Amino acid sequence: MADTPTPTDSEPKGSAKSPFAGCSILIVATIVMVALVGWALWTLRFQEGEIAKFTQEEPQPVPVYDVKDRPDEVAKFQERLERFQTNISEKKDAELRLTADDINLAIAHYESFKEFRETFHVREIVDDLLHIDISYKLGDAPFSGRKNYLNGQMTAILELVPREVVMRIQEIDIPEGEMPKEFLTELSTHRVMEVYKEHDILGPVMNQLTSVTIEGNAVVAAVTQGEKPPTDIPEDMTGAGQRVLALVGILATLFLTAV
Fold first, then answer.
1. Interacting residues of 63 by C-beta distance below 8 A, sequence separation 6+
2. 215 SS3 class
3. What angle do CA 72, 75, 78 make, to 5 degrees?
4. For residues 62-81, average pLDDT
5. CA distances from 213 to 62, 139, 199, 223 (A)
6. pLDDT (tens digit, 9 = 90+) per residue, 102-122?
7. Residue 128 pLDDT exceeds 50
8. Contacts of 39 (CB under 8 A, 6+ apart)
9. Would you say 146 and 52 are in contact if contact means Cβ atoms under 8 Å apart?
């Protein structure tokens, strides 16, 4: 009669695993994912309600100049721009003074600025501030489909940063409601010229500017030989990107944990 084999330590031993262990993991993962989705939906809904408190459902278009009635002004303005560009290309000191009329005229005349028409109008430049009528579309609300327009008057100063001119918003007066400080803080650095950094003409000019100031009733853009354009990016312009990366990292970690 053959000997009955006896188990040895080298042979695998049976394990008493619960058949519900895998299901428990899936249940927990599902709960976490549902919680994340619920939190995201609640956040969107909450933001939608807050934005509705200081926006309107219809735009209030701002004035736009009729350049057909201003041929002489357009010609003189074009001449000043060309002289400014010529001085820069010839490595000479260059200065361009822009009044409120000049800025509004440029918006109405040049196709490059057509996105500003009926949304951005400089009312006046006084006390070192730009006073601007705005009618910005903030997008449609995801749940109600409500269209949100930020209508009002904005005051801002200008700052020259590497390759770009930015607006520092000081205040926004709106027709109804009150804008939350958090929203104004996020909007305070208005990169109104960012889209022109790669523009064939405006890009190279902004890249060579050494100063942008407000003097009296005009914005003064200057290129001074011997002075270098700014090279340091303000901390608040880099902080936004870091916050976005941090948020993406947190969400990715939560997602991977759930999975």
1. 104, 121, 133
2. strand
3. 150
4. 95
5. 25, 32, 22, 12
6. 999 999 999 999 999 999 999
7. yes
8. none
9. yes
